[in-house]
Amino acid sequence: SHETPWRFVYFGLPSAAMLAGTISLEHQRRSKPSRLITLIGDASFVIYLTHPFALSGLWMSMRIFSLDDAGLLNNIMAIIMCISAVTLGCLVHLYLERPVHRFLNRKKELK
């Protein structure tokens, strides 16, 4: 179990290394950031709000097709679930949040 003081070593240090690497890349890069990364950043709050729906839907599908205890397939499904959660959040951001935000800003400007 990772519920020991070693949890920091297993999770904290790799997370800190990824964060430090990302920050250093951002400072070295002189060009504009990737449109995909920018979209994911813009949609991050919606991803946070919608990910339970994507994950529970996929989890139910896995259970229906008896894929919830399939060894290596679980790792592949975990990747698919992450990609699906991010995709759903980005779609909701693009087709719901962004248009509603624009509409509300226009109404606000008219006052």
Q: What does this molecule look like?
A:
It contains four helices and no strands. The chain is mostly helical. The radius of gyration is 19 Å and the shape is flat. The model has no long low-confidence stretch (mean pLDDT 86).
Average of the residue pLDDT scores: 86
Radius of gyration from the alpha-carbon trace, in angstroms = 19 Å
Q: Based on DSSP secondary structure assignment, what is the total number of beta strands?
A: 0
The first-to-last residue Cα distance is 58 Å
- Describe the largest sheet: none
State the order of secondary-structure elements, H for helix, E for strand. Answer: HHHH
Classification by helices and strands: mainly alpha
- What characteristic shape results from the CA principal axes? flat
The percent of residues in helical segments reads over 70%
The number of helical elements comes to 4
Percentage beta strand: under 5%
- Point out poorly predicted stretches: none
